[in-house]
Amino acid sequence: MTSRLSNDTVQALPASVAVPSYDRARVAPGIVHLGVGAFHRAHQAAYVDQCLAEGETDWGIVGVSLRSGDTRDALAPQDGLYTLAVRDSGGESLHVIGSILSLLVAPENPSAVLAALTDPRTRIVTLTITEKAYLRAAGGELDAAHPDIVHDLANPHMPKTAHGFLAESLARRRAAGCQPFTVLCCDNLPTNGATLHRLLVEFAALRDARLAAGDARLAQHIADEVAFPSSMVDRIVPATTNADRRRISDQLGVEDAWPVMTEPFRQWVIEDDFPAGRPFWEKFGVTMVGDVGPFEDMKLRLLNGAHSAIAYLGLLSGHATVDRAFADPAIRQFVDRLWAEAIPTLPADAGLDTADYTAQLAQRFSNTALAHRTAQIANDGSQKLPQRIVASAMERSEAGAVPEHLTLVVAAWIAACEARGRTLPENHFTDPLDLALAALGTRHLSAGETVAAVFDLAGFAKDHAERQTLIELVATHLVHFRQGGPALVLAALGIH
Q1: Locate the Mannitol dehydrogenase N-terminal domain: which residues (predicted)?
Q2: Is residue 275 part of a domain?
């Protein structure tokens, strides 16, 4: 198969494939997206595609990769087009998405990225850069000693980080008298908009001090004039395999180098604060609210928390995918108990229907068509667990309840890290703390010593009154993991 998906071939695709109904040549860029990975292409870009089809043609997307050129290399020959394959146990539907107009690779051409960000037509900047790319220290503040932050402060016109690109482009827009864009964080951070706002103000303050310009005061400008609405996103997007590529290309009759797989369910809840304007997203199911917090907490603690539990218990039990792990009766029972422990930490007066939500989650986790790999979810546990698991555990402990199941997830992560190179492949999943975790492994520490050291490294429950209680609970579970694996740990909770 030599022909590629492109503007020239898209109209000749089979009638069963949905294709853009709008003239892409008439679409203008209005959004710059940082972190143009599979999730963005299955979620935000798909919503924008629907807006473009309804005539809102000034909201095209300029996609930016902050690290590698893989996505650009795959999609540029396809004019930015790609297939979104929506799959469930009953079948698959194909949609060609046309909302990404161009793709940039920041390390190759930071000037082009800054030009896109400072373009007056850019009114929204969205981000899906993963939790670790926000470069937070253990206490949650900006990691000012991180080499990339140090570089960006010394080289403001050639940034590497999201912080550096946002700060420099906002400074340039301010100097040109151009209205600031709205910054819309779509990553799984608690109060993600407010968190990014705080981190960027911290970065800008360091930049202001370094530049020592009398009228710079970029930090104050960002603090007072730039909108950072929080949002909550939800859609399961497993990694695309070579088999997926072959299957989709066969159905299209042309090659698609990087289609995206996803489930039918999708959700996007956004705080409605867009001074420079926004697409009419609510027409396509986006929920615009005054406070995204309760929705965010429900998703982080029930979906993401359960996902982490399934990933680590699944890996340790030999299950390669979520549906297989969730079909394990012991893991299934554990997830129900985990939800029962986490639900009381959610606000009771926010109108959340947790029974319906967890019923939907059970159905989604059982989707055999997705083949969502447990190793993919297992990545970056030290960055994900604080908001998914540790926050709930602290609240349960404060309330006088014993967070047995929540703390077991932390122990499962530690045990899965220890299993790499033994019962799991060496690099089966990765974590920003891998070097430090590997060093711990050479010291042959007891379970209690290991957990205390990990809490220190990851900043779990830092300065919290219940920290020692949580460490002791996690350590008890880790002893069982080391002695008899998941079966012994779950049996200790009466799960068989």
Answers
A1: 30-283
A2: yes
Q: Are strands 60-65 and 287-289 parallel, antiparallel or unpaired?
A: unpaired
- Number of other residues whose CB lies within 10 A of the CB of residue 157: 11
Q: How many CB atoms lie within 10 A of CB 416?
A: 25
Per-residue pLDDT in tens (0 to 9) along the chain, 496 residues: 579 999 999 999 999 999 999 999 999 999 999 999 999 999 999 999 999 999 999 999 999 999 999 999 999 999 999 999 999 988 999 999 999 999 999 999 999 999 999 999 999 999 999 999 999 998 889 999 999 999 999 999 999 999 999 999 999 999 999 999 999 999 988 899 999 999 999 999 999 998 765 456 899 999 999 999 999 999 999 999 999 999 999 999 999 999 999 999 999 999 999 999 999 999 999 999 999 999 999 999 999 999 999 999 999 999 999 999 999 999 999 999 999 999 999 998 888 999 999 999 999 999 999 899 999 999 999 999 999 999 999 999 999 999 999 999 999 999 999 999 999 999 999 999 999 999 998 999 999 999 999 999 999 999 999 999 999 999 999 999 999 999 999 999 999 8
Report the C-alpha gap between 284 and 268 in whole angstroms.
10
User: Tell me, what CATH number does 283's domain have?
Assistant: 3.40.50.720
The rounded distance, in Å, linking the Cα atoms of 96 and 83 is 4
What is the tally of structural domains in the chain? 2
Q: Tokens representing 152?
A: 């960006």
**pTM of the entire structure?**
0.85
- 233 with 374, same domain: the answer is no
Q: Cα-Cα-Cα-Cα dihedral of 260, 264, 270, 276, to 10°? A: 50
Q: Which amino acid is at 149?
A: I
Name the strand (E) or helix (H) holding 363. Answer: helix 354-365
d(CA 76, CA 72): 5
